[in-house]
Design brief:
Length: 226
């Protein structure tokens, strides 16, 4: 399964929300061995994804952006709904918007359930534009992940979980991480202006979790607001 698919499939408006309880700075934890694949999948499964399918579970076979064995996958349900409408205007019938989890998609289990169908995760244009700006790389073309780091130390901003452990929040929307930093600055004025936001390809984050450079148990994926 590919984490990336055709670009510019659909444009969408931004949704706004806040993440509270950002608190402590820590360096990313480096593990000495490869991570358990199930832990990686569990971390990714915090993110829902959406795609268009026929009642039988196969991809629509018509549409300029569609192939018989390929189905684009979206981080926003509204994007999938608009893709469904576009396909219906082109003559497709019996279509549904289906929901899955990113980890299930990435593991290949979803492909097994839908007769070997290939999936591609589509980058939202608004988030992709932000990643290009932050990375100063106009060739950035993948689904981006946004991380807050201290400008001087490079340490990653973490949040305290319900069990008291610390985890690094990895955001899939630029405005959510910016709003979270704004809220943090209100609660702790001495932190204002101390952080920078960096963008990384989702595939690189997943690779780091798989090879143990990033502990998936110390990661909290912050999904888009649907």
């Amino acid at each position: 399964m590919s984490l990336n698919g055709p670009k510019d499939f659909y444009t969408t408006t931004m949704r706004r929300s806040l993440l509270a309880c950002l608190c402590i700075l820590l360096p990313m934890t480096t593990q000495a061995q490869t991570s358990d694949q199930s832990a990686v999948i569990k971390a990714l499964n915090a993110v829902p994804v959406y795609f268009v399918a026929t009642a039988s579970g196969s991809a629509p076979s018509i549409g300029a952006q569609q192939q018989a064995d390929f189905s684009p996958v979206f981080l926003y349900s509204q994007e999938a709904k608009i893709a469904k409408t576009e396909l219906e205007h082109e003559g497709a019938t019996g279509l549904n918007v289906e929901r899955a989890e990113l980890g299930v998609l990435y593991s290949g289990e979803l492909s097994k359930k839908t007769k070997g169908l290939k999936y591609g995760l589509i980058a939202n244009p608004t988030q992709l534009a932000a990643a290009k700006r932050l990375s100063a790389n106009q060739n950035f073309s993948e689904v981006p992940v946004f991380i807050a780091k201290h400008k001087n130390s490079g340490e990653v901003l973490t949040l305290k979980q319900s069990d008291g452990t610390l985890a690094a929040p990895l955001f899939l929307e630029i405005h959510r991480i910016e709003a979270a930093l704004d809220e943090l600055a209100k609660q702790a004025p001495n932190t204002a202006g101390n952080f920078t936001v960096e963008a990384y390809p989702l595939s690189a984050i997943v690779n780091d979790m798989q090879r143990g450079a990033l502990n998936p148990e110390n990661v909290v994926m912050i999904p888009p607001v649907n």
